[in-house]
Amino acid sequence: MRTDLLTLNGGARAVNLNIPRIGIVITDGKPTQGADSVKVPSDNARTANIILFAIEAGNHIDAVLDDIANEGNYKFSMEDCVKVIDQIRADVCPFNILFR
Q1: pTM for this prediction
Q2: Which residues are 54's β-sheet partners?
């Protein structure tokens, strides 16, 4: 995500434009390649100022969601997807440009 999608070549805007970059990760909460396969890339994304949301789509495992999501209200269940839209609207679209 950080090295392919959220780049200028991937369509992201220049950092100096101060347009937030967000990532939404939908997971069953079970890393297939060990805990570091989740934590390290997530930490790298946060270091690059990417806001990460985590949505559990299976057995809710707090530790995995904690490793992925930014601190605060960035973890959700599938049932809470409406909250994700509201949070994105509040953090990324303060002028209500989207979702009209």
Answers
A1: 0.66
A2: 25, 75
Structural domains for the chain:
15-92 (3.40.50.410)
Residue by residue, DSSP assigns 24-63 as EEEE-S--TT-THHHHHHHHHHHHTTEEEEEEE-SS--HH
Instruction: Report, in angstroms and rounded to the nearest whole number, the Rg of the chain calculated over CA atoms.
Output: 14
Measured CA to CA, the distance from residue 94 to residue 69 in angstroms comes to: 21
What confidence tens digit (pLDDT) does each residue in 12-67 have? 777 777 778 888 888 887 777 766 678 888 888 888 888 899 888 876 677 888 88
d(CA 59, CA 56): 7
Please, are residues 20 and 92 in contact by the beta-carbon 8 Å criterion?
yes
